[in-house]
Amino acid sequence: MRRGSHDMQVNVAGIRRNLKNLAHNYSDAQRKVREATSNDPWGPSSTIMAEIADLTYNVVAFSEIMQMVWKRLNDHGRNWRHVYKALVLLEYLIKTGSEKVGQQCKENIFAIQTLKDFQYLEEGKDQGQNVREKAKQLVNLLKDDERLKNERARALKAKERFAQSASGFGSDGGLDTPSSPRYPAFRGEWSTSRESSEWIIVAARSISRVRLGGQFLKTGIE
């Protein structure tokens, strides 16, 4: 009975999230971020995180994704999973998404640093510890340029190997800046060299500033 009740609560939460997506007219990119950082009692899937990472190479989607991520990071209390999963997603995007993600995080590192003091007790359990530890790890990564460069290169190579092993994907002709029918790809300022555009499609397949905690985030998009 307890398992059935839990599953029902999860389903209701999913329905509520979908209704909110419609009510707020969230974009596909924003919906993916909301799904990856939901209050469901499990972590974001690698598939959806990879899809979000690909979308960070699109100029409109990048802005939408980062806006939603910062919004999730600004949550608190019983929504601690929003915060924790947003940190998990952000780490993934920094390592495998557009380099613009890491640049924006460095410019707004204060927003992540404040989470090292995150507090929330749930039925006597310190759930804030998960957030504090992940925030600490992410801040340390962002402050170490050499380590960030190495981890990013390693993560991208791992994804490329996976892409090459997937049927129908991983050909040389497919390695280019990601694009989407909904979002125009970055052009001009974005290099299309192999080094800067490594990416993967997984599973066989403007907001200039965002207000956070009384301060304005620098998004680099005007």
Automatic annotation (TrEMBL):
Q: Where in the cell is it found?
A: Cytoplasm
Write one Pfam family the protein is assigned to: ENTH
InterPro entries, per database record: ENTH, ENTH_VHS
Q: Name one GO biological process term.
A: endocytosis
PROSITE patterns recorded: ENTH (PS50942)
A GO cellular component term found in this entry reads: clathrin vesicle coat
ENTH domain location is 21-152
Q: What is its main location?
A: cytoplasm
- Keyword Cytoplasm present in the record's keywords: the answer is yes
Q: Which UniProt keywords apply?
A: Coiled coil, Cytoplasm, Phosphoprotein, Repeat
Which superkingdom is the protein from?
Eukaryota
Q: Which family does it belong to?
A: Belongs to the epsin family.
Any idea what this protein is called? ENTH domain-containing protein
Q: What species does this protein belong to?
A: Acanthoscelides obtectus
